[in-house]
Structures are given as structure tokens and as C-alpha cells.
């Protein structure tokens, strides 16, 4: 008994509702769907919906559909359809051959509308959009009935067919459900269910000049596909009575049930399609997949993995209350996913040359380096070492600050996986900038040789100059200014001018040869980086920084 009790407690509220429906015989199977409108790229919030719907179907041995809610041809593009299919597949949500389009059901929707007219549940209305809005009333004032509400069934059937045949101009007439203009739920006050719109549709071309409204089409789509549980976000809670009304009055057997959950909100990120569209059109970002955005395509390009997004969605959980999640949680998840999977490589982002004056000329030795000290299964690699190296500029200070343990005149440090070196001085250019650092090495101190002599406090990484590969690295910050807030007073985005830093003169060890798009690595001390899928070539590698190594997020924070 106790075990059963614990099992129920551990389930989220949606799973508890599904269990109840199955035990009471309301449904004998579970079928869910993800129903995006193809009017933009999916973002991190959609990932939660995809994984939730797919996860429920998988848990209950059911099926998961991908269906495009393409009932609004004014905003829909084939580009968006293709990107969404790619995103869903990448996340691992398997829909097999169950790829559907709402537009394939236009005839069934039209037939449902005719059925409603015949039952006296729908009428053709001549009011303009502004007049319909005025007649609808508000939360304090009941609506007024349209003067066209009591047209005869015959007249409504004739005019609705004329709407379909293109007799009327856009906006001249609409079909409205005949429900209750005094309902406290404004969605039930004779909502518009069809409008005239002469637009070429991406799937049906010019076959139709009338299109169903979302609140009418969506429940019909679910019913046609035998969806059992229509999982959607909280803003549709007030639309649920209309959803139930449509499937009941259209006489669907064993109709689907709508259940709402809280949306996923990330702090200080841009998810609104109109904002992203403007950023794209104004060339502020490099398309919908720019790594500074949180579209799924952007996260993929930046180097996030499906596993990290699944971990993130699991941590966020499923609830009925809207709340915001710190972006640091998403960064935590990608660090956790990559830290044991990816090799730790040496890369210099802001190079300065280090010359070991007493190292033999024209000599290259190959050092054994562990690919990941925390995961020995990743093995070792050979890394070339020589007289001239590149180190990070910040690893040398001519006049060191307090507790600075890296290179400065007279100080000894360890070159990672190599030798101890002692700084002897530096060279400068005419402007006083350091161009070369000089040092000597102690050949007895080679890593792995068993040397147990003096200790040093500083260890720095390096890349051998003779075999170094020159690459480009891109560092990202939030595209909006986190300190000032996301929006300006005029409603425009408050952009961060430092959201992208491009470093064109970086050097990496030769082990990166053969790196391909999306391959990711940990750059020692600099973070996790991914090969850019758009601009990188074998001759000119471009790396995107996925995330830095330090995290501000802790589990249970």
C-alpha cells in the first residue's frame, strides 16, 4: 500500500489524470501530439512541450504525433515546417509516420461547420472585426447579440457556401459559433470560427479562400487523430470550454481531453517571434539560428545537446503555476552532460609567444596527454611540444598583482603536461606592449617522469607554435542587457552591445584536425566549445563557446 502511495506522489499531475482516465475506462490507450504553428522557429519553451508530450506517450506505451497547425497562411512558411521537423527529430521525439497537417483536414472542418449550421449552432455574420469586438463586451459587461444571429439555417448554409466559393471579400463575412453572448467566459460569446482570407497556403495552394480559426480547428484535429490527452499551456485554460463545446457539438465519439500546464519562462532571453523576426530582418543576428538566441536551432548550433535539454526539462518539472527559470540552470545542464564525454584540449584564445631559450632548436617531442582526467576511458593523445609556444596573454604579468601565481620575471610555473619553466624576461613593441615572453626549462621536471622535487603554485596551458592551427573563436553573452532589463520604455529590446566577441587569431593543438560541425570539446580553462555548423570549414575552423567552465547554478538553489 505504501509503495502505491509513493508511486502516485512521485507522478506529476498530468500523469495522475491519465492514470485516472485509464482506470475509469475513459480511454484504453494514450495518444499525444505536438501541434506547432509553422510561423517561426521553435524555442526552448517548445522543447518542454515536445518532450512532455512525447514522454507521456512513451511512458504509457502510446503514440506521439507531430502535427502542424497550419490554419493561418498569412504567417506560415515551408522553411519553418522543415526547421520544426528537424528540431523534433533532433530532440529524440519519435513520431514515425505520424506527421500530419491541419490543412489536410480542411474538408472535414468545413463539414463540421456545415453540421453546426444545420443544428442551429453557427451563423454567418456581417459585422466587422471592430463591431464584433464591441458587441462582445468585457469581463464586467455581457455581450450583445449580432443582428445577424437569427438568420435561418437555409440562409446560413447558402451564404457559407458562397464564402467558400469566393463570392465575398476578405473580412466581409465570418462564420460564428452560436453559443452564449452573456457567458462569463468571453471565449464562449459567439466566437468566430471561419473567416474569408484570399491567401496562398503553403500546403493547399489556392484551393481554399476561407480558413478555420485556431479554436475551432484545433479540437477537430485532435479528435480526427484520436488524441486522448491534448496537453497545452495555461493560456488555453479559458479556451477549454470552447474546445469541449466543439468536439461535443461536432459529434465526435470518445473526444480528447485538454489538460493545461505552466509554460517555461527563462530569465532575460528573447523568445517572442516578433522580436526575433525583427532582429533577423535588421541583421542584428545571423538568422533564427544565431547562437545568441534560444531557438532550438540556435542552441543546437551553439553546441547544446539533446541530452542537456532533456535534463533541463526534467529539472524544471511540470506544474500548474507559471514561474521563471534562471538561464544558469540551462548552462548547468550542458556542463553536466559534456564534462565526462568530451576531451579537454589546449587552445589559446588571446595568444602571446613564449620562447624557451634553453630548449634545443628544431626539436619537437610528443607528450602523452590524457583526453579527460575524470574519464580515463577517453584515452590519451600525443601533443607536440617545442621551443616556441603560444600561451594566454593573461598568463604573464611583468609586474604581478598580489596572489598572481603565473608567469612573471623570476617565477617558476608548470607548463601543463610538460615541464617547469622559469620566466627570465620579455620583449615589447614600440607601444610598450609585450610581444614575447622568455623563459628557461628544467628537463628533469617532465610530467610523468616521477619528479618529486620543488613545488610550484601555477600551471598554465600552451600550444606549440610550429604545429599550431589558427582558428576563430566566438564568445557569447546574453543578447539583451541583463542589468537594465529586457525591454526599453518604448517596448523595444534593450540589446547588449557585447553579446558577440569574435577572436580571429586563436591557436589550437593539431589534434583538432578533422573536426566536424557540431563536434564539441572542453578548451582548458576557457570553457566548452563547438564547431560552428554554418561558417566553419576544414581549412578555417570556427568555434562557438557553448558555456564557460564556472557555474552560478547549484542543484537545490
Strand line-up of the largest beta sheet: 12-25-26-27-23-24-13
- Total strands: the figure is 27
Helical content, roughly? 25-40%
Gap between N and C termini:
33 Å
The dominant shape is: elongated
Q: Which stretches of 5+ consecutive residues score pLDDT under 50?
A: 1-8
User: What's the multimeric state?
Assistant: single chain
Radius of gyration: 31 Å
Secondary structure tally, helices: 13
Mean pLDDT: 93
Please state the structural category.
Answer: alpha/beta
Q: What proportion of the residues form beta strands (DSSP E)?
A: 15-25%
| Largest sheet entry | 7 strands, mixed
Keywords:
alpha/beta; 7-stranded mixed sheet; disordered N terminus
Description:
This protein is α/β, with parallel strands linked by helices and 557 residues long. The model is unreliable at 1-8 (pLDDT under 50). It has helices at residues 2-10, 13-23, 44-59, 78-91, 106-118, 129-136, 153-164, 214-224, 240-249, 273-281, 296-302, 306-316, 327-338, and strands spanning 31-34, 63-68, 99-101, 122-125, 174-177, 192-196, 210-212, 229-233, 257-261, 264-266, 323-325, 344-345, 347-348, 351-356, 365-370, 380-385, 388-392, 412-415, 420-428, 434-442, 459-460, 463-464, 469-476, 500-508, 520-523, 527-531, 542-547. Helix 8 packs across helix 9 (240-249) and helix 12 crosses helix 13. It contains 13 helices and 27 strands. The protein is elongated. The strands form 7 sheets. A 7-stranded mixed β-sheet has the order 12-25-26-27-23-24-13.
Amino acid at each position: 500500500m505504501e509503495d502505491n502511495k509513493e508511486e502516485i506522489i512521485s507522478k506529476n499531475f498530468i500523469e495522475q489524470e491519465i492514470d485516472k482516465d485509464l482506470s475509469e475506462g475513459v480511454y484504453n490507450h494514450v495518444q499525444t501530439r505536438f501541434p506547432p504553428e509553422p510561423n517561426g522557429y521553435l524555442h526552448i519553451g517548445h522543447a518542454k512541450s515536445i518532450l512532455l508530450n512525447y514522454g507521456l506517450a512513451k511512458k504509457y506505451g502510446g503514440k506521439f504525433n507531430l502535427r502542424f497547425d497550419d490554419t493561418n497562411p498569412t504567417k506560415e512558411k515551408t522553411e519553418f515546417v522543415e526547421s520544426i521537423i528537424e528540431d523534433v527529430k533532433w530532440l529524440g521525439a519519435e513520431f514515425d509516420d505520424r506527421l500530419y497537417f491541419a490543412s489536410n483536414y480542411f474538408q472535414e472542418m468545413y463539414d463540421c461547420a456545415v453540421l453546426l449550421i444545420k443544428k442551429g449552432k453557427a451563423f454567418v455574420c456581417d459585422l466587422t472585426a471592430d463591431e464584433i469586438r464591441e458587441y462582445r463586451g468585457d469581463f464586467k459587461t455581457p455581450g450583445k447579440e449580432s443582428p445577424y444571429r437569427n438568420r435561418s439555417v437555409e440562409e446560413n448554409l447558402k451564404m457559407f457556401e458562397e464564402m467558400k466559393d469566393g463570392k465575398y471579400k476578405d473580412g466581409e463575412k465570418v462564420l460564428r459559433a452560436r453559443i452564449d453572448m452573456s457567458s462569463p467566459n468571453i471565449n464562449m460569446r459567439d466566437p468566430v470560427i471561419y473567416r474569408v482570407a484570399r491567401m496562398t497556403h503553403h500546403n493547399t495552394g489556392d484551393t481554399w479562400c476561407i480558413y478555420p480559426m485556431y479554436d475551432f480547428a484545433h479540437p477537430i484535429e485532435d479528435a480526427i487523430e484520436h488524441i486522448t490527452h491534448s496537453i497545452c499551456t495555461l493560456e488555453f485554460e479559458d479556451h477549454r470550454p470552447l474546445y469541449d463545446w466543439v468536439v461535443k457539438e461536432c459529434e465526435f465519439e470518445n473526444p480528447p481531453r485538454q489538460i493545461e500546464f505552466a509554460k517555461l519562462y527563462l530569465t532575460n532571453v528573447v523568445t517572442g517571434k516578433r522580436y526575433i523576426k525583427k532582429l533577423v530582418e535588421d541583421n542584428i543576428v545571423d538568422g533564427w539560428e544565431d547562437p545568441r538566441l534560444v531557438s532550438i536551432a540556435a542552441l543546437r548550433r551553439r553546441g547544446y545537446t539533446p541530452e542537456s535539454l532533456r535534463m533541463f526539462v526534467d529539472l524544471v518539472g511540470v506544474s500548474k503555476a507559471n514561474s521563471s527559470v534562471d538561464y544558469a540552470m540551462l548552462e548547468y545542464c550542458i556542463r553536466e552532460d559534456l564534462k565526462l564525454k568530451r576531451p579537454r584540449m589546449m587552445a589559446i584564445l588571446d595568444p602571446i609567444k613564449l620562447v624557451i631559450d634553453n630548449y634545443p632548436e628544431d626539436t619537437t617531442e610528443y607528450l602523452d596527454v590524457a583526453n579527460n582526467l575524470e574519464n580515463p576511458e577517453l584515452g590519451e593523445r600525443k601533443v607536440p611540444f617545442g621551443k616556441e609556444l603560444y600561451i594566454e596573454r593573461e598568463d604573464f604579468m611583468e609586474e604581478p598583482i598580489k596572489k598572481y601565481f603565473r608567469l612573471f620575471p623570476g617565477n617558476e610555473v608548470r607548463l601543463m603536461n610538460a615541464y617547469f619553466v622559469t620566466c627570465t624576461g620579455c620583449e615589447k613593441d614600440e607601444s610598450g606592449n609585450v610581444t614575447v615572453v622568455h623563459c628557461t626549462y628544467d628537463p628533469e621536471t617532465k610530467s610523468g617522469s616521477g619528479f618529486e622535487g620543488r613545488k610550484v603554485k601555477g600551471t598554465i596551458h600552451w600550444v606549440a607554435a610550429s604545429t599550431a592551427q589558427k582558428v576563430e573563436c566566438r564568445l557569447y553573452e546574453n543578447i539583451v542587457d541583463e542589468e537594465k532589463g529586457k525591454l526599453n520604455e518604448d517596448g523595444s529590446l534593450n540589446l547588449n552591445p557585447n553579446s558577440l566577441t569574435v577572436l580571429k587569431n586563436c591557436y589550437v593543438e593539431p589534434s583538432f584536425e578533422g573536426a566536424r560541425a557540431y563536434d564539441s570539446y572542453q578548451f582548458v580553462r576557457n570553457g566548452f566549445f563547438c564547431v560552428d555548423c554554418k561558417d566553419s570549414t576544414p581549412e578555417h575552423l570556427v568555434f562557438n563557446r557553448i558555456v564557460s567552465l564556472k557555474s552560478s547554478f547549484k542543484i537545490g538553489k
